[in-house]
Amino acid sequence: MKLILAVDALIPPLTGIGRYAWELASHYQACSKEFDSIRYYFADRWIADPADMLQGLGSEAVTPTRDRGFFRAPKSWRRWRMQRDLRQHVFHSPNYFLPESVDGGIVTVHDLSVFKYPETHPAARIKHFESGFASTLKRAAHLITDSEAIRAEVIDYFGWSPTRITAIGLGARQEFRPRSAHEIAAELNEHGLVHGEYSLCVSTLEPRKRIDRLLAAYLDLPSSLRTRYPLVLAGSTGWLSDALREQIERGEREGWLRYLGFVEEAFLPLLYSGARAFLFPSIYEGFGLPVLEAMASGIPTLTSNCSSLPEVADGAAWLVEPDDHKLLRDGIELVLCDETWRRAATARGLHVASTVSWERCAKRTLAVCRRFG
């Protein structure tokens, strides 16, 4: 099989889509002998090693030469060769869009938030979808989604045949696992945290994540509970509103909230495994990878009862309507305090997480690609 994987999402620090692309690329590199040809594409260039992208070192492949290597091929000839290679390979874009020169490729559509919640996206991104996504759908041979929930949305929203869309769930890295207090005490102490004595939310701070609702519900908990288990927020600022910023600053002043901002990849699994509970009330997700990572870490989890999140949790999380203040507040208290539920949720979450992996995701994705190669 001849395959091209687009790696335009490999921009550090990795977002969810970047993580997805990196896990696919890593798996394909590890099993490269299974391919007749495997290539990595970025902006009309071949990338020799996708890992270089994470270091900002993405490099163009060696350009063909003539006569002892002293003559650089004309741009028109290189463009012709690029077009030939694109035609001879199955092309997979993990990031919504096919290059204009690709006809018949495979595209991963992670969610439809740009259409359903345009207010949560920058204007430039909305314009990009408006100008280019219809063309991608017209040329795509097959679509992949991260969940059955998004697969159903794509079928309904764009009128695509169910036979042309495959749902393939994501995975959690092996670094996300339960850890004892002794194992991570030093790392947590560097951030002023103690194992089992904080709740956690890992999320970009943007409207559809409902962080404002989470903070309002947490503030309404009994003060003794907030003091005993302060809330830790980790994630990039995203589209941080002034009102949310004020909520965060108030919580930090009152001592029941810590905002860590972006957390380095090496520390993130430790942060998860030290939490007493994980809280993720997002109203819309293509998959909800943080929920899976929390469950793989053995952490009792609360999440929303909408979009793909119940599918990902698979009975292991406490589900709430994120816009219902009382249900959210009561759910947080239960997840923090109900020991019987917590034990059952931890066991169920570990089981659910054990049934999925990035390797399984990559193998199923490759199986789809093989159907067209």
From TrEMBL:
Pfam families: Glycos_transf_1 (PF00534). Keywords: Glycosyltransferase, Transferase. GO terms for molecular function: glycosyltransferase activity. It comes from the Bacteria. InterPro entries: Glyco_trans_1 (IPR001296). Residues 197-344 form the Glycosyl transferase family domain. The keyword Transferase applies. One of its GO terms (biological process) is lipopolysaccharide biosynthetic process. This is Alpha-1,3-rhamnosyl/mannosyltransferase. It comes from Paraburkholderia phenazinium. The lineage of its organism: Bacteria, Pseudomonadati, Pseudomonadota, Betaproteobacteria, Burkholderiales.
